[in-house]
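Worked example 3 (structure in, sequence out).
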């Protein structure tokens, strides 16, 4: 199998009271005066977007027509224990109108497909919940 680059996201970040981030393509331009909670929110937003695409791919692979687009509410917790910081995450997925067993199968398959989910596997406790 030959590797193929699909996309490279490029951002420029600055810190301080006037800190922020801007993407090279201009689709992202945010003021980020504090690294926390911006980092957790941005990570959750990026992961959710990727995960929704993985849900659509998992449904397509199973020849399941998704009802109106999936919704993902992601919660990223920043925790500290004995001075060591770590993350926990919950992916709360809504797939209205889909049989619950099929929906469960799709969201778990999506967690195996999503590059963000793969990147954190074994490093972050993650719950995938069908709501």
């Amino acid at each position: 199998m030959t590797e193929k680059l699909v996309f490279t996201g490029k951002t420029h970040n600055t810190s301080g009271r006037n800190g922020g981030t801007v993407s090279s393509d201009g689709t992202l331009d945010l003021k980020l005066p504090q690294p926390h909670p911006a980092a957790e929110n941005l990570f959750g937003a990026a992961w959710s977007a990727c995960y929704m695409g993985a849900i659509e791919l998992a449904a397509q692979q199973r020849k399941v027509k998704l009802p109106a687009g999936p919704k993902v509410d992601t919660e990223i917790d920043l925790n500290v224990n004995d001075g060591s910081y770590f993350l926990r995450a919950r992916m709360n997925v809504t797939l209205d109108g889909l049989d619950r067993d099929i929906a469960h199968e799709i969201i778990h398959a999506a967690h195996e497909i999503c590059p963000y989910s793969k990147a954190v596997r074994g490093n972050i406790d993650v719950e995938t919940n069908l709501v």
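Notes: The longest helix spans residues 35-61. Helices lie at 35-61, 100-113, 115-120.
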